[in-house]
């Protein structure tokens, strides 16, 4: 396999019903920064927007079924989850709930060394808010998980 000099970058791209409201929500709930939005001149939908959360670009649009852009609301959920790592997860978790997220799993110390909790936002996307508490090797992680499931 040949090596390339191309720089790779991966950015999640989400579709929501009500992208303008979602952008405003993510700014308040997750301290996102809006970079820009392109508004469809025909109907006012967001055709493309870019936000930055913790240095990562999150792209989004309103639904455009003719382009295959369908939201979790239309699909009945999404298998994709977003994980945010911060130095102190509890305040961001509380901020997101205060802004309208619903708690799926409470904040707690996890067997794999993180403290984390899981939320769903009003647009159907799932977010895991985490912080690293301790480094755990993959072997120790497996041993702890096995013990928890068998015990």
From TrEMBL:
Residues 7-132 form the VOC domain. It comes from the Bacteria. InterPro entries: Glyas_Bleomycin-R_OHBP_Dase, Glyas_Fos-R_dOase_dom, VOC_core. Pfam families: Glyoxalase. Signal peptide: none annotated. This is VOC family protein. The lineage of its organism: Bacteria, Pseudomonadati, Pseudomonadota, Alphaproteobacteria, Sneathiellales.
């Amino acid at each position: 396999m040949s090596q390339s000099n191309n720089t790779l970058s991966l950015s999640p791209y989400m579709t929501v019903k009500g992208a303008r409201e979602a952008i405003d929500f993510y700014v308040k709930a997750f301290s996102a920064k809006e970079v820009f939005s392109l508004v469809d001149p025909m109907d006012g939908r967001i055709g493309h927007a870019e936000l930055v959360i913790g240095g990562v670009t999150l792209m989004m649009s309103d639904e455009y079924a003719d382009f295959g852009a369908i939201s979790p609301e239309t699909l009945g959920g999404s298998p994709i989850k977003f994980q945010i790592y911060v130095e102190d997860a509890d305040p961001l978790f509380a901020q997101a709930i205060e802004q309208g997220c619903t708690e799926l799993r409470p904040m707690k110390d996890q067997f794999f060394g993180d403290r984390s909790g899981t939320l769903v936002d009003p647009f159907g996307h799932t977010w895991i808010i985490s912080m690293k508490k301790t480094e755990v090797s993959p072997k120790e992680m497996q041993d702890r998980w096995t013990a928890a499931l068998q015990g």
